[in-house]
């Protein structure tokens, strides 16, 4: 299990993990390189390929734990990581189930989706910051940073009304509200939805129907390609996190899905 864009494992994920552990599943919850409790330099820099490698490393680490059946691994990801898990599970025969929560699965669709809730000026400022960040990183200098979440009208990766307050409500002690700006350029080039058709394991996709951050239509298309079980929630992107109206339902649906497909898994937890 891992978080989305700029997230850390102590920021709203532990309640999901503890629910899975209580249901008899073994849980390995991790931070990406350069974030939270994980090592790596530079800090707060998102590499989509690097995060995918981190998922693959976590799968190997989980498979090596005592008592774990290495042929029955599960992937869980939320937001940006909801796309990572599709890519990580594709073309593997050791994955027993996948849970993709409010997933970001199509960068171009997300960019078009953003035009409905952001002014052209806001989008231009974020893109300009990303371009400057890319140029600076290629020169070998320290990354250009931007907030993960900010208020509407400010520069940030997520600037929708309420996004700052929503993220702060789940933020753990290791979370930092900054991220390397060049990720804004990388996001638009990725389409993990294409990997959904190559996921052979049972797949649960949990969609927030009024999601202003991750396009729900793109998530639904990916779910169809992956022959997924789909759960819809009449809410926005952050409303499936702990303390929000639809968290309990999303958590319980995921638990039921995993128990149904992993009924023989034994109990331990490392959250």
Automatic annotation (TrEMBL):
<dbReference type="Pfam" id="PF00561">
    <property type="entry name" value="Abhydrolase_1"/>
</dbReference>
<keyword id="KW-0378">Hydrolase</keyword>
<protein>
    <submittedName>
        <fullName>Alpha/beta hydrolase</fullName>
    </submittedName>
</protein>
<feature type="domain" description="AB hydrolase-1">
    <location>
        <begin position="2"/>
        <end position="241"/>
    </location>
</feature>
<dbReference type="InterPro" id="IPR050261">
    <property type="entry name" value="FrsA_esterase"/>
</dbReference>
<comment type="similarity">
    <text>Belongs to the AB hydrolase superfamily. FUS2 hydrolase family.</text>
</comment>
<dbReference type="GO" id="GO:0052689">
    <property type="term" value="F:carboxylic ester hydrolase activity"/>
</dbReference>
<dbReference type="InterPro" id="IPR029058">
    <property type="entry name" value="AB_hydrolase_fold"/>
</dbReference>
<dbReference type="InterPro" id="IPR000073">
    <property type="entry name" value="AB_hydrolase_1"/>
</dbReference>
């Amino acid at each position: 299990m891992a978080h989305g864009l700029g997230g850390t494992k102590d920021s709203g994920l532990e309640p999901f993990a503890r629910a899975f552990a209580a249901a008899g599943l073994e849980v390995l919850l991790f931070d990406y390189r350069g974030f939270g409790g994980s090592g790596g330099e530079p800090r707060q820099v998102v590499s989509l390929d690097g995060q995918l490698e981190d998922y693959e490393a976590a799968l190997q680490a989980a498979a090596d734990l005592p008592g774990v059946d290495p042929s029955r691994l599960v992937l869980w990801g939320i937001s940006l990581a909801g796309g990572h898990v599709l890519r990580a599970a594709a073309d593997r025969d050791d994955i027993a189930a996948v849970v993709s929560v409010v997933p970001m699965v199509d960068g171009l669709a997300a960019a078009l989706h953003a035009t409905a809730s952001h002014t052209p000026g806001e989008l231009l400022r974020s893109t300009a910051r990303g371009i400057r960040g890319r140029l600076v990183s290629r020169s070998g200098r320290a990354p250009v940073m931007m907030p993960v979440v900010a208020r509407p009208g400010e520069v940030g990766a997520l600037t929708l009304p309420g996004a700052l307050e929503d993220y702060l409500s789940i933020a753990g002690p290791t979370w930092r509200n900054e991220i390397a700006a060049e990720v804004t350029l990388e996001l638009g080039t990725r389409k993990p939805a294409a990997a959904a058709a190559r996921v052979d394991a049972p797949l649960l996709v949990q969609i927030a129907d009024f999601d202003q951050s991750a396009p729900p239509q793109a998530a639904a298309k990916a779910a169809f390609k992956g022959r997924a079980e789909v759960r819809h929630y009449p809410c926005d992107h952050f409303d499936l996190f702990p303390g929000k109206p639809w968290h309990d339902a999303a958590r319980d649906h995921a638990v039921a899905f995993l128990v149904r497909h992993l009924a023989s898994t034994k109990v331990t937890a490392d959250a």
